[in-house]
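(Deposited chain)
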Amino acid sequence: MDTWMRFMSGDGGSVFGQVEGGYLHEYESLNRPVPTGAVLSTRALTPLAPCAPGKIVALWNNFHALAAKLDKPVPAHPLFLLKPAGSVIGSGEPIRRPISYAGKIAYEGELGIVIGRRCRDASVEQAAEAIFGYTLVNDVTAADLLNENPHFPQWCRAKGFDTFCCIGPAIVSGFDWRKAHLVTMLDGVERQNYPLADMVFSPAEQVSMISQDLTLEPGDVIACGTSVGVGSIKDGSTVTITIDGIGTLSNTLIAACEVAASAAALVTATTA
């Protein structure tokens, strides 16, 4: 298995490559994984989300156990929504409560599929070859907004706020998802622990079927859906999601007052 990460360098640019023994072996990009020859110490770099997706395709009802708990039939085709690119943050970055929203915010620990090549109308075999690797996703939701309007479920609004798609800490290629479990901890207490093999649609099937609906581009992420154990996050709480072989994704929800204070400080700094 190979571990891939993305960092911010000292000049404010981003670098991408394989990480081994505390060093980044730089590659041109995820889309063009050609080594540049540069080797950088990760201690001098700031971690970012491991990719910068143009879109995130987030599945719903893709685990047998959750479908049974909700008393929902398993779908014949992946049920999905899109999260915007602006919602992405990396491990260690704060989830920011929207200033205008005081309601319930929920976490969902999920496996993420990272696309490595342009994919449209792909067979299952072609789809498997288009998968660059796997990562972790926390699909955050402003739960009270979903049914705020009884005439229109607001999936995109509820899940599309800035910082509501946590991805990381790395992408691992050659990862065998069939043998893995995902564990979600909330402030150190286990909330989710489920086998990825319980998925309704395998990663290759997801990529194949979704590619029949829309074109998948390099760097795009498919969040495979979650299983039982979804819950809410209080301001100040930390969610950690772990899959052995990929790593741990950790993010803390900060209160709206902290968001407002940070914004005010930024305005003061830029106008001083």
Summary: The CA atoms of residues 128 and 197 lie 16 Å apart. Residues 55-271 form a domain with the Fumarylacetoacetate hydrolase; domain 2 fold (CATH 3.90.850.10).
